[in-house]
Design a protein that fits this description.
The structure holds two protein chains of two kinds.
Chain A lengths: L1 E6 L2 E6 L6 H7 L18 E4 L2 E4 L12 E3 L5 H13 L9 H14 L5 H7 L11 H11 L3
Parallel strand pairs in A: 1-5
Antiparallel strand pairs in A: 1-2, 3-4, 3-5
Chain B lengths: L12 H5 L15 E7 L5 E7 L1 H5 L3 E5 L30 E2 L5 E7 L2 H10 L1 E6 L36 E9 L2 H7 L2 E9 L11 E6 L5 E5 L4 H12 L6 E4 L17 H10 L3 E4 L2 H6 L6 E10 L5 E13 L5 H10 L10 E10 L13 H18 L4 H8 L20 H12 L1 H4 L2 E3 L4 E11 L10 E7 L5 E5 L8 H13 L6 E4 L17 H28 L6 E3 L3 E4 L5 E3 H8 L9 E6 L8 E11 L5 E11 L6 H20 L29 E6 L22 H13 L10 H11 L2
Parallel strand pairs in B: 1-12, 10-11, 14-15, 19-20, 26-27
Antiparallel strand pairs in B: 1-5, 2-4, 2-6, 3-5, 7-15, 8-13, 9-10, 9-12, 13-14, 16-17, 17-25, 18-19, 18-24, 21-22, 22-23, 25-26
Helix pairs in contact in B: 8-9, 9-10, 9-17, 13-14, 16-17
Classes of the chains: A alpha+beta, B alpha+beta.
């Protein structure tokens, strides 16, 4: 079936199977930051924004995005890089495979929470797994980014 | 030092963090065939018949391979230096399948959907055998996992395959039984560690194609490009010169990618079809069809005299390697070799036992490589001994641990070159508040808080075996290319090795271009494993850079028409000491590649160390236990680390925090369960829980630097040692809280609850 949506503010029409997942459609479309890490909707790697809200693109059928607006990290490179510099300065980028999904959630959190506590930050980001960093460096970077040291 | 010791950001950090297409699956050509594997539903069976005729006819299917289509040559997937200690006990596809998930057929089609459809059309009939699932029953079981005659060992590892024993080992120095008899107190503890999963975020994946000269190129998410090339050469019976292996960015490895899990399947498809082919493991496949930590049973006996000196250590072990013997003998040996040296007031030590085959997923290398298992057992026993002796657990360690300049029974007379472990313990005690918190405090209704501790060591590379080469080239524009075969899997070795080169050459990080790793281009390196990269490859880089620096000064002097003793170099210019003449690095570089009779400068070095200096960690846990439910909450973890000189404090700190959290997962959450037919039940993140950011409490990391005389700038390793202390320290804290001694990992609320009920707490 044909799906029309906006990807990073660009209107596109793509062909997708009726049972196709948004993560696969977006990756096929060329958004190579989209990765599937678990196949069970629990790792957060494939996080994108659907009409501005973070979602797991592996858990949304592509046709559900018809007529909607998708943002991937490719569409917010300036903001992503601003945070990535802080993350890298902490050494907390490590393998980087979970970073695009993680950063999309961090950027969404910045819009949603004002002056969050450590617990609120951990809670908001809890669906983004990382096996390398041990999360503490993420927390330090997020707090620096939000200015809530 | 200007660059070493600085918390410089990773050279690849911004690209990987912002989602640039730099990983294996991002680089695949669009016409690559998709490879899928039909896997055995049985733990032990023979394929009686396999009918692929319907599947082959499906439009879009390019190639289906069964055991009839592969070379009849056994090999090992374990990434180790040649001659590999792991037995050659695999075929690419075998008539016998040895665990649920073992490969039965390889399917390649134009897309994933077609490949999966074809898989369903393959009809396989099996003769089902009784599997060996319990590793404690494997020795002498009537089922023999590897009955084949052509199984090959490169050298004697103590294999008795008719008894399912892959390796039988015994190291004894002194007479352990005699010394134990003389001891005032003897404690015994039998510990079980589980088959932990690596759970790296990027699952196993590789793709392959034939290049313009017909050579096989394999791009793989691997820690071991050179070993992969050797394995492919043997398994495919293809000359090594016809194979090129390239490592792009890697999404985590943790030792899993020290085994060549996936590369062979696209490679054989490419050879059969001439077409590019890729394989991407699903998460479930990664859980049940790759490799894991070796599950072990370790019985420790410790004897101490009246003064509290540990005089005898006996460790008797049994290790489960699963269906194939990857890393079987070496992981087991490390459980002894990286624990026995810790306590050097001993008069006798022994480490012995067997590694057995079972019909489960093969085990392999996982961060810690046996030391993790050994540390849980030994440190649990030391904590028990301290209690018997009514000594503080920190005191017994301070009294018994090896110090810098000392030796121990298993060191063969060699002296410990560096250690600050005693100050690590003192600092850790202060950071956790040991004196105030040990052993426990009530914390309101039904809650109790307690602390526990453990220490550990690892190695830095494999002494005398891990051999790395490095090249540093002065480019025509005055910049440098650092060529290495080490494999940055997120750890940051491209960055810290560049820091070392920049430090020696007195230039900025921007002047160093790092190239790694490609078997056609990179100098030989076994790959990044065994805690070798900072220490072994690091020394190769330092030596190569120093060699190049000498060449720069020599050539600068020649062009300035003075003797080499009359010049100095500051990273920008070669100038005479008197200051009257100078030539810039750029000009020198240009002149060296321009015109007849010139020679571009390359510094190279190959390095192996005769010793493997141990890094150390003192780990401290504070937990809160709910006495009604057994729920354990980790409040604080303190890790104080001696990794010698810290090359990059930010990256080192994250290595520690990441390792501690992976250790916390092993200690508290990561349960591995098989059903009675050999199906892995914990095969997704829904069943196999790795820590999320709400599970870990607060983690405090500190460094107590020592100076390792044989290491680059005094550095030792850090990658593995950091995973070892959480299991024994957390189990100790739980014991101190509620008196329940958990000796079988993980420490789950159920075990704590049942333990409390049994003890009537």
């Amino acid at each position: 079936m044909q799906i029309e949506f906006a990807v990073n503010d660009k209107k596109v029409t793509v062909e997708a199977g009726i049972d196709e997942l948004l993560a696969d459609t977006l990756r096929d479309y060329g958004m190579l930051s989209i990765r599937k890490g678990c196949d069970t909707s629990c790792c957060g790697l494939c996080t994108v924004w659907l009409d501005g809200k973070p979602i797991l693109s592996c858990s949304v059928l592509s046709f559900r995005a018809n007529g909607k607006s998708i943002t991937t990290i490719e569409g917010v490179q300036r903001e992503a890089e601003e945070f990535a510099k802080i993350l890298a300065a902490e050494g907390a980028d490590q393998c980087g495979f979970c970073s695009p999904g993680f950063i999309m959630t961090v950027l969404a959190m910045k819009n949603e929470l004002k002056n969050p506590s450590d617990e609120e930050i951990r809670h908001y980001l809890t669906g983004n797994l990382c096996r390398c960093t041990g999360y503490m460096g993420h927390l330090r970077a997020v707090k620096k980014y939000l200015g809530v040291v | 030092m200007n660059i070493v010791g600085k918390g410089i950001s990773k050279v690849d950090g911004i690209a990987i963090a912002t989602g640039k297409p730099v990983y294996t699956d991002d680089l695949v050509m669009s016409n690559a065939l998709v490879v899928k594997i039909l896997r055995s539903p049985y733990a032990f069976a023979r394929i009686k018949s396999i009918d692929i005729s319907k599947a082959e006819k499906l439009e879009g299917v390019e190639c289906i391979l069964t055991y009839k289509d592969v070379p009849n040559i056994r090999f090992t997937s374990a990434g180790q230096s040649y001659p590999e200690p792991s037995p050659y006990d695999r075929l690419i596809l075998d008539e016998i399948v040895r665990y649920v998930g073992d490969e039965v057929a390889v399917i390649a089609a134009v897309d994933e959907k077609t490949a999966l459809k074809a898989m369903k059309l393959i009809k396989a009939e099996y003769e089902i055998f009784e599997p060996v699932l319990n590793f404690e029953e494997a020795e002498g079981h009537k089922t023999i996992v590897h009955p084949e005659e052509d199984l090959h060992c490169n050298f004697d590892i103590g294999m008795k395959k008719d008894k399912n024993i892959v390796s039988s080992q015994k190291v004894e120095i002194g007479d352990v039984e005699e010394e134990l008899k003389k001891c005032h107190v003897v404690v015994e503890e039998t510990c079980y560690t589980q088959a932990q999963a690596h759970a790296m975020m990027e699952t196993y994946r590789a793709f392959s194609y034939l290049d313009h000269t017909g050579r096989l190129v394999v791009v793989s998410s691997t820690q071991i490009p050179f070993h992969v090339r050797r394995k492919l050469s043997r398994a495919l019976q293809l000359p090594s010169g016809k194979i090129r292996v390239i490592k792009p960015r890697i999404g985590g490895g943790f030792g899993g990618k020290q085994t060549a899990v996936a590369e062979i399947f696209p490679a054989i498809v490419t050879l059969k079809t001439g077409m590019p082919a890729k394989i991407v493991y699903e998460r479930k496949e990664t859980f049940y069809c790759s490799n894991s930590r070796h599950a072990m049973r370790l019985k420790v006996r410790l004897g101490a005299d009246r003064e509290g000196y540990i005089r005898a250590i006996d460790i008797q072990g049994l290790s489960d390697t699963g269906a194939y013997g990857e890393h079987a003998s070496t992981v087991f040996a490390v459980a002894g070799s990286k624990t026995l040296p810790l306590y050097n007031k001993t008069k006798a030590v022994r480490f012995m036992g067997n590694v057995v085959y079972t019909n489960k997923m093969p085990a392999g290398a996982l961060r810690g490589y046996g030391a993790t298992q050994g540390t849980f057992a030994l440190e649990s026993a030391v904590n028990k001994l301290a209690e018997e002796l009514k000594m503080d657990p920190a005191e017994i360690r301070l009294k018994n641990l090896i110090k810098e300049g000392e030796t121990c029974l298993t060191f063969d007379g060699n002296l410990l070159g560096s250690s600050s472990l005693h100050s690590c313990i003192e600092k850790g005690k202060a950071l956790i508040g040991w004196n105030e918190k040990y052993p426990r405090r009530e914390a309101g209704s039904n809650k109790v808080r307690a602390v526990g501790m453990a220490v550990t060591m690892q190695g830095s590379g494999i002494a005398g075996i891990d051999t790395a080469s490095a090249e540093v080239r002065l480019n025509d524009d005055g910049n440098f290319t650092l060529l290495i075969g080490a494999t940055d899997m997120g750890t940051g070795c491209d960055t810290i090795l560049a820091q070392m080169a920049a430090e020696v050459l007195e230039v900025s990080m921007e002047s160093i271009i790092v190239n790694a790793a490609d078997t056609d281009v990179s100098p030989y390196d076994p790959g990044s494993y065994a805690s070798s990269t900072t220490y072994v490859t690091g020394m190769a880089v330092v030596n190569a850079a120093e060699e190049l620096k000498k060449q720069i000064m020599r050539n600068g002097a020649r062009l300035l028409e003075v003797s080499p003793e009359e010049v100095e170099y500051d990273g920008k210019n070669v100038r005479t000491i008197e200051g009257d003449k100078a030539i810039s690095l750029e000009k020198l570089a240009e002149l060296l590649v321009l015109g007849a009779g010139k020679l571009q400068l390359v510094g190279n070095a190959t390095y192996a160390s005769p010793v493997s200096p141990p890094p150390f960690v003192a780990g401290f846990a504070e937990v809160e236990v709910d006495k009604e439910t057994g729920k354990v909450e980790l409040l604080d973890y303190v890790a104080v680390v001696d990794c010698g000189t810290v090359i990059n404090p930010n990256l080192a700190r994250i290595q520690v925090e990441g390792g501690i959290v992976q250790g916390i997962g092993m200690a508290m959450f990561e349960d591995v369960r098989y059903d009675e037919r050999g199906n892995l039940q914990t095969n997704s993140f829904m069943q196999y829980k790795i820590p999320c950011r709400k599970d870990i409490g607060n983690i405090t990391v500190a460094f107590e630097e020592s100076f390792e005389p044989t290491g680059p700038f005094g550095a030792k390793s850090i990658g593995e040692v950091v995973i070892n202390t959480p299991s024994p320290a957390i189990a100790h804290a739980v014991y101190n809280a509620v008196g329940v001694r958990i000796t079988s990992l993980p420490v789950t609320p159920e075990k704590v609850f049942m333990g409390m009920r049994k003890a009537g707490v």
